[in-house]
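Suppose a colleague, Dr. K., hands you the sequence of a protein chain of 148 amino acids and asks what its three-dimensional shape might be. Before reaching for any lab equipment, you can write down a predicted structure in C-alpha cell form. Begin with the sequence itself:
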Amino acid sequence: MRPPRRPNHLPGPDVRFAPPDAGVTRQGRLEQWRRDRATAQPLRAEFPDVQQLRIELKFAGPGSTTPTPQSHVMYPPASAFFEYLCPYADCDGHFDLGGAVEAAMADATHTAEGMLECRGSRARDHSSKQPCLLQLAYKVTATYQPKA
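The predicted structure, expressed as C-alpha cells, is then:
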C-alpha cells in the first residue's frame, strides 16, 4: 500500500533551496539604490553655481510596450544622484547619467544629449533571462544662478 499523497507535494525527498542573495534580487538592488541615493551629496555641494538641473528621458525598445518619457527637475537641495533604474519591472539594469551631467556642466551651452542602452537582463519567463536592450535618449540641461 502506498502512503497517502500530501497536497502540493511531489513524491521524493524534500528539497530546500537557499534563499536568493539579497544583492542579486531586484529588491536587494532597489534597496542598495535607495541607500546610494540617500547618501549622495546635495546638488548644491557638487555643483554650487547650478540653480536647476533638468533631465529628460525618452525610451525606445524592440517590444510593443515602451515606457513613457520622464522628466526630472532638480534644485540645489536635491541629491546629486544620477542613476535611474530601468523602468521595466522585470529588468535588473540601470542607466548612469553621471557622465552626461558632468558633460553638461563642462559644455558652453550647459547641455548634453546622448543615447544609452540598458545592459540589464529581463526575465520574460521564469526559466530564462534575455538582454533588455531598452534604449534611452537623454537630454541634460543645467541652468546657472545669475552672477551678482
